[in-house]
Amino acid sequence: MIDLVAQSLFSGVLSGAYYALIALGLALVFGTMRVINLAHGELVLLGAYISYTAEEKLGLDPLASLPLALTLVVATAMAVYYLISLIKTDRELNSLILTFGIGVILTNAVLMIWSADIHSTTTPWYHDATILFDTLFAMQAELVFAALGIVLVGAVWWWLEKSWYGRALRAVASNRDAAKLMGVNPQLTEVLSFAVSGLLATVAGVAIYTAKVIQPSLGHHLTVKAFIITVLAGMGSVPGVLLGAVLLGVVESLTVTLASSALQELAGMVLFLVVLLLMPSGLFGRAKRRG
Fold first, then answer.
1. Which domain holds residue 102?
2. What pLDDT shows up at residue 235?
3. Cα dist. 30→91, 170, 203, 204, 210 in Å?
């Protein structure tokens, strides 16, 4: 029983690293623009399907397909930003409606282009099992992209804390008008946040394709996961996104192990509601923002 719980915890941590890649892009855009991009999960899914096409049609390894997927997903993210930038009044509410519609369009576009069949990588190496400490099992794809996810989250955190553009982005998120007075171009920081969001979505999509299965309806599911983690993390906390993602992954994994796989999604929603009720600013939000 102890080994089973240990394996469940390990699997939850690996899933959390995947979730962090998905959620950080959504949290970044929300922090900068106060816009919840409901098409974010579809951008992740688009990256996954481009990787599938590159492997199926061009014979590329999923990792080698990253430049192609990155170009197309970031271009799509820029198109989403352009449409949002056209909104002049009630941007928070209207962008919510707009991005939901964009998500529906992208889902149906994926369905029309790639059909409703499920897909996963055909490269055997990614599905090969690795044994750690003689008791813990994981696919090699899980280990590779979990490590990559942690590295990217750390890189984004460093960029936000240490670079000029990162500080400019945080300034716009904190006080847009004051940032203008300090010479910061808010529009440029918004474009940058969408570009970084698209980069993270691309890596997350390729990661999901290598370790799991993809289908057109997956995009909405990924957006919900990202939103839950953003609430768990709290505003302004990149490490909080990683910790919140790991917490969600562990809760879901333990639920499957100790109860039933049918309760996995319910467990995540219960965790979301409990945190939302008790700590509205999130587990890792700033204390002064807590209710």
1. 2-117+130-289
2. 62
3. 12, 11, 19, 18, 28
Residue 123 placed within a domain: no
- Decide if 124 is inside a domain: no
Position 135 in a domain: yes
Asked if the structure places residue 198 within a domain, the reply is yes
Domain count, the chain: 1
Below-50 pLDDT ranges, the chain: 288-291
- Which CATH number does the domain housing residue 182 bear? 1.10.3470
The answer to whether the beta carbons of residues 119 and 209 sit under 8 Å apart is yes
Cα–Cα dist 29/127, whole Å:
33
Look at residue 289 in the predicted model and tell me its pLDDT: 44
Burial level of 80, CB count in 10 A (0-12/13-18/19+)? Answer: buried
